[in-house]
Amino acid sequence: MKPAAGASRLSITLAGPADYARLADLHDLCFDPAWGRESIIGIFAKPGALGLIARAEGRAAGFSLCRGIGDESELLALGVLPAMRHGGIARALLDATIAALAKDGKRALFLDVAEDNPAGRALYAAAGFTVVGRRADYYRRDGAEPVAALVLRREIRPSEGA
């Protein structure tokens, strides 16, 4: 993995209750509109939730949030702080998420990505995701026209959790 924006060490750990505020802060710095702490708590209040936090040089740099049921999971959010992007953190988080889901017995991962997000689309295509649907006017941003979401899917192999 390429070091992230000058970071020589990257660690990825499971998120728990002590991390809810940190996850909300990270989401706020990565996305608009952002989810608050209550939204994060709501995700973890249900079975099948998974959160990971990436740290570069000991500092929170990114996160992933999933929810699952049965043998499927949905990647709700994957974000990297703007100053830390383009250094491999997103791919490392995605790989760690897939590995954790494989260990949990998940066999498929779904996600939505904005049609106008070429970096996200490239990341997911390189990781083996394929387009299985499209949601018109899904993303609504302040002062901008709505953007469609592409629904992506990827098989998870049990060996990816090894």
**Superfamily (CATH H level) name:** Gcn5-related N-acetyltransferase (GNAT)
Task: Report the CATH topology name.
Answer: Aminopeptidase
Classify the secondary structure makeup into a structural class. Answer: alpha+beta
Number of helices: 4
Q: Give a quick account of the main beta sheet: strands, pairing sense, barrel closure.
A: 7 strands, mixed
Mean pLDDT across all amino acids: 92
Percent range of helical residues: 25-40%
String of helices and strands: EHHEEEHEHEE
How many individual domains? Answer: 1
Q: Which outline best applies? A: globular
In terms of per-residue confidence, which ranges show pLDDT below 50 for 5 or more consecutive residues? 1-7
Describe the structure.
The chain is α+β, with helices and mostly antiparallel strands and 162 residues long. The chain has one domain: Aminopeptidase, CATH 3.40.630.30. The chain contains four helices and seven strands, in the order E-H-H-E-E-E-H-E-H-E-E. A seven-stranded mixed sheet has the order 1-2-3-4-5-7-6, with helices on both faces. A hairpin with a 2-residue loop joins strand 2 and strand 3. Helix 1 crosses helix 2. The two termini are 18 Å apart. The N terminus is likely disordered.
What attributes characterize this protein structure?
single chain, 162 residues, alpha+beta, Aminopeptidase, seven-stranded mixed sheet, 4 helices, 7 strands, 27% helix, 36% strand
